[in-house]
Design goal:
The chain has 457 residues and is α/β, with parallel strands linked by helices. The protein folds into three domains: 106 residues, Gyrase A, domain 2, CATH 3.30.1360.120; 141 residues, Four Helix Bundle (Hemerythrin (Met), subunit A) (Up-down Bundle); 164 residues, 3-Layer(aba) Sandwich (Rossmann fold), CATH 3.40.50. It has 16 helices and twelve strands. The strands form two sheets. A six-stranded antiparallel beta sheet has the order 1-2-6-5-4-3. It has a six-stranded mixed beta sheet with strand order 8-9-7-10-11-12, with helices on both faces. The chain is flat, with a radius of gyration of 29 Å. The relative contact order is 0.13.
């Protein structure tokens, strides 16, 4: 199989990767070089080569470097050759087409990494970490992906799996023992072992919040009435004029979304249309979208104009929002007529659970209180170490299944005559853990995971 392993388009270098039992035969047909052909070169050899459309007399397409990898010491665990030529839309496509014409087939999405898993080079958590690293939006997310790729999650899962299967074997070994003849304290010790494993699974589950933030980011929706300063707040946070700002009410009629990293956590900042009753059909659609986003948001920055009294629309909008996910931002604090915290809270009827801050979207560093408040929201979720983080939703789902089965097994072990059912539940827990690392897998599971990869990885 073969594919372009670098992004399509103009670049300094384009890499065509060939992998599989016929990799050297294919490379010999398209590579022209001084000395031995690729199939007779040692592992780790790299040399100047001309890439052709096949055959010794064929016209040259490009020239560059050829790199030789021999099984099992390659990314896929198979024989592999990489052709590194000049970057460009046309020439890279021509080299790839020459390779395909020479007998290779086009690789599917994630097929190189899938082969690496099937050949024992990676487990599934490490394979998924490869994708997380490619898609990382911040340095902190990239660091977490690298640590998972190094095997942190795999080691913890394999230890759980081994403990589970050993405990299950102990219980199954007692199935033929007559009732009343079990070794003293066997059931109590088995329940203790299950409890320790369940506690470890719960610890891993508790890291899902941080993993979700690092990989998917936090949706922060900026909402409020027209002319409260929502777009100005977005521009101030980004440090550039991304949204149009005008004194005319209803300037923002659609959602504007931008990415922003706050101390290593990716944020999706969404500026929305001002909430108000309007006869304009386009603006009504914008208000409808704003309300939907507020329901989906992880955090809502509800902006209030501190120089104007809040009205019914503000009170109704805030009443529909959860206090723990809402920050009320009193904007225009640089103006002398801006109301204080107590006055705004009283007029809005806000209970103490709401966070309320004052800021200025116009003054230098005037949005610092907003950023500090956002950071405090993140600190409780993303403060732990990254090693072994259950960064994927799939991991969290399997851990939840395992934890439920463990609890059921512990409950069943209260009686001697429930040993078989307890062992069955332990096997269910072990299978869930095994699916995380890939000790147990199906083609459907692999298709689901690797279909998210790009072609060439």
């Amino acid at each position: 199989m073969a594919a372009l392993a670098t992004a399509a388009g103009v670049s300094g270098v384009a890499v065509v990767r060939i992998s599989g039992p016929e990799a050297f035969a294919v490379a010999d047909r398209v590579v022209r070089c001084a000395g031995a052909p690729p199939s007779r070169r040692p592992a780790g050899a790299f040399f100047h080569a001309v890439f052709t459309a096949g055959g010794p007399a064929a016209a040259a397409i490009d020239d560059g470097l050829a790199l030789v990898f021999r099984a099992p010491r390659s990314y896929t665990g198979e024989d592999a050759v990489e052709l590194q030529g000049h970057g460009g839309i046309v020439v890279a496509r021509q080299v790839l087409q020459a390779v395909l014409s020479a007998g290779a087939r086009a690789a599917g999405p994630g097929e190189f990494t899938r082969r690496a898993f099937l050949n024992g080079r990676l487990d599934l958590t490490q394979a998924e970490a490869v994708l997380d690293l490619i898609q990382a939006q911040t340095e902190r997310a990239a660091r977490a992906a690298r640590e998972q790729a190094a095997g942190g999650l795999r080691r913890r899962m394999e230890a759980l799996y081994d403990r589970l299967t050993a405990l299950c074997a102990d219980i199954e070994g007692m199935l033929d023992v007559e009732e009343g003849e079990l070794p003293t304290r066997f059931l109590e010790e088995a329940r203790g072992g299950i409890g320790a494993i369940a506690a470890e699974a719960q610890l891993l589950l508790a890291t899902w919040g941080e993993g979700h933030l690092l990989r998917d980011g936090l949706l922060v929706v900026i909402a409020g009435r027209v002319n409260a300063g929502k777009s100005s707040l977005l521009n101030a946070i980004l440090g550039r004029r991304r949204a149009i700002v005008s004194e005319s009410p209803g300037t923002t009629r659609d959602t504007i979304e931008e990415r922003y990293a706050l101390n290593g956590i990716p944020l999706r900042l969404a500026d929305t249309a001002g909430i108000r009753d309007t006869v304009c059909e386009v603006e009504r659609e914008g208000v409808s979208r704003a309300r939907l986003l507020m329901e989906e948001a992880d955090i809502v920055l509800y902006v209030v104009d501190g120089t104007a009294p809040p009205d019914r629309a503000d009170r109704e909008a805030l009443a529909a929002l959860p206090a723990e996910g809402t920050l009320v931002v009193i904007n225009k604090a640089d103006r002398p007529e801006c109301a204080g915290l107590a006055a705004v809270c009283a007029s809005l009827g806000l209970p103490p659970a709401y966070g309320v801050i004052r800021c200025s979207a116009q003054a230098a560093d005037g949005v610092r209180p907003v950023m500090d408040a956002l950071q405090s929201k993140l600190d409780g979720v993303a403060a732990g170490p990254h090693d072994g983080v259950a960064i994927g939703q799939r991991h969290a789902a399997e851990l939840t299944t395992a934890h439920a089965a463990l609890r059921a097994a512990a409950s069943l072990l209260a009686r001697e005559d429930e040993l078989l059912l307890a062992a069955t539940k332990l096997r269910e827990a072990a299978e869930a853990i095994g699916r995380i690392t890939g000790r147990i897998y199906s083609d459907d599971l692999l298709d689901t995971i690797f279909s998210r990869f790009c072609v060439g990885k």
